[in-house]
Each structure stands twice: as C-alpha cells, then as structure tokens.
Design brief:
single chain; 327 residues; alpha+beta; N-terminal domain of MutM-like DNA repair proteins; 7 helices; EC 3.2.2.23; FPG_cat; nucleic acid binding; DNA-(apurinic or apyrimidinic site) endonuclease activity
Length: 327
C-alpha cells in the first residue's frame, strides 16, 4: 500500500502540473465504490471550470484546493491507487511493470483532469489521471477537507504535525498494544504504514520523503531494501550488521500486518503472543513436518525447493516401516 512518502510524492507531482491552472474538462468513469458519497457525474459538475490554487497532503490523503464555491477533491490511494501525468513515467509503489506503458488513457482510470491556463495552447494542456486497479481507493468531495472525515479522524502527521517528545511519550504509554500496531493505527499516526513503521523500529534516522520516495535512492542499510520476498530461498540483497556479518531477517504478524525484523537487533517480547508468532514463523520455515502417526508427509507449497535427497530418504523410510508392519 502506498504510504506517506509515496502519497507526498504524488501530491507534489499533481501540484507541479496543476497549480495555477483551471480544470477545463473532466473525464470520469462510473464507479460507485471508488467515488464515495458522490457520483462521477456530480464530481465532474462540481470541479469543472475551477482553478487549482494548491495541492496539500495529510497522512495518506491529499486534496486539491480549488477557487470558487463548491467542495474540494479529496483523494486516497488505498492499496493500488495512483496518479499518472500524460507524457511522464508513472509513479509506482516500490516497483512498476517490467515494461513501460505509454497507453492513454491508462487502464483502471477513474477520472482525468484536463488543466490549462489562458495562455496555453492545445498541445500544452496537462492531463492528470487517477487510476485504481483493485478499487480500494476513494474519491470524495469535501467543503473543508481538514475539518471533515477522513482527515479529521486521523492522528498526527509525522512530517506536518509531529508532537513533542513529552506529548508523544504520554500518548504511547496510554496504549496497551504492540508498538508497531500502534504506529499503524491511523487515528494515532497518520500516514505511517507497514514499511515506514518497520523502518522506524529499525532505528531509522532520516525520512524517505527527502529522496522523493524513490526506493533506488534509499540507503543500503535500510531494512526496506531487504524486507521483501518472505519465504524465498535466495534473497537478492544482504543486510549487513555493523560487525560485517549478515543480518538474520525474520517475519512475524503484528497488528494484522506482516512485519520484518532483524533478530540480532530487535528482540521479541516474552509474551505468549510473541512466542506463538515465533513458533508459527519457525514452522513456516520448515520444509517438512515430522512424520505423523499415520506416516504421512505434509509437503508445503514450497515443495519445489525441497532437497531431492531428503525426499528420497523420507520415501525409503516410509516403505521400510510399511514392510515391517506387513511382516
């Protein structure tokens, strides 16, 4: 899911191409799920002809401030939402398609804004599309975006409204839940998602916003670079400890989300829940379970990675036991 850095980058992109321009035309596709509390027709009628004065972000939500009477477009990406500017390489969460796509209008488009100034000719009109493949994003209209849901129900924004250490500590100590689950709670900290929270718990000292959410520019010692590909036998990159030894990356489920952590640096609590998660993870890392009383071998989905010799040994052992039972 796009998190604060990706949404911040998208808001800046829209601002660069829309600020000071008028919305001369709006194209929409009907979608009663993504358009929330408003139809695509109402959306068009309310914003067409108005000038974009600013584009602002709060948490994972961003909105366009428009001149004149009427409500403002408030946008949330959900899992797969995105904005694409015609003629520019699309932004993608972590990575995009292996092959570039210059198709216009793009697939899964919900609306396209045509923007221009009186001095622009037809060739210089900007076009900005909002797309969403899985339809988990939301397009709303709000009179005062900062005072209405969804933004009004969000907690502090780590970039825009980070509380003092004293207030932050007080708010944290009032809660009784895993710290990552707390960070993922948008009513506590708006914009913090799975990978941002993981990095924060990995003693992150700089913000991803400073490199415009381009993962290629992230430092190699960020956990972000190495947290992907759970369950794969061969990791593409290796995270090194300060000692120069390779770090041991494990995964647990916290707050309903898969969390990566470095075993040498981040210690699990001694609670039963943590022990249960650890046991589950260790079980997932096994190729074969122990032989059951019915002498059946449970082969996991990753069986294509099993050692052929190990499979042969187990098979021979089963045959041997069956012969003993017959005799």
């Amino acid at each position: 899911m796009p998190e604060l850095p990706e949404v911040d980058r998208a808001a800046k992109l829209v601002k660069a191409h829309a600020q000071g321009k008028s919305i001369t035309r709006v194209e929409t596709n009907e979608d009663s799920i993504v358009f929330s509390g408003v139809t695509n027709i109402e959306f068009t009628e309310e914003i067409q002809g108005r000038k974009v004065e600013d584009v602002r972000r709060y948490g994972k939500v961003f909105f366009l401030e428009l001149a004149g009477e009427g409500r403002m477009p408030v946008l949330h990406f959900g899992m797969t939402g995105n904005v694409i500017v015609k003629g520019e390489v699309p932004l993608y969460y972590k990575e995009g398609p292996k092959k570039g796509n210059s198709e216009w209008p793009p697939r899964f488009v919900k609306f396209i804004l045509h923007l221009s100034t009186p001095e622009d000719n037809c060739a210089s009109v900007s076009q900005i599309a909002f797309v969403d493949a899985r339809r988990l994003g939301r397009i709303r209209l709000c009179k005062e975006p900062l005072k209405e849901p969804p933004i009004s129900s969000l907690g502090f924004d780590p970039i825009l409204s980070m509380p003092s250490l004293e207030d932050f500590s007080e708010n944290v100590l009032r809660r009784k839940c895993p710290v990552k689950a707390l960070l993922l709670d948008q009513s506590f900290s708006a914009g913090v998602g799975n990978w941002v929270a993981g990095l924060a718990l990995f003693s992150l000292k700089i913000t991803a916003v400073s490199v415009n959410a381009d993962s290629n520019e992230f430092p190699n010692d960020w956990l972000f670079k190495h947290r992907w590909g759970k369950g794969k036998r061969k990791q593409l990159t290796t995270l090194l400890l300060t000692s120069g030894k390779p770090a041991t990356i494990k995964w647990i489920t916290v707050g309903g989300r898969t969390s990566a952590y470095v075993a040498e640096l981040q210690q699990l609590s001694s609670s039963k829940e943590a022990e249960k998660e650890t046991e589950q993870e260790e079980d997932e890392e096994s190729d074969l379970t122990e032989l059951s009383e019915t002498e059946e071998v449970v082969v996991r989905k990753r069986s294509k990675h099993l050692n052929p010799q190990k499979i042969q040994q187990v098979s021979e052992e089963l045959k041997k036991r069956k012969r003993q039972q017959i005799s």
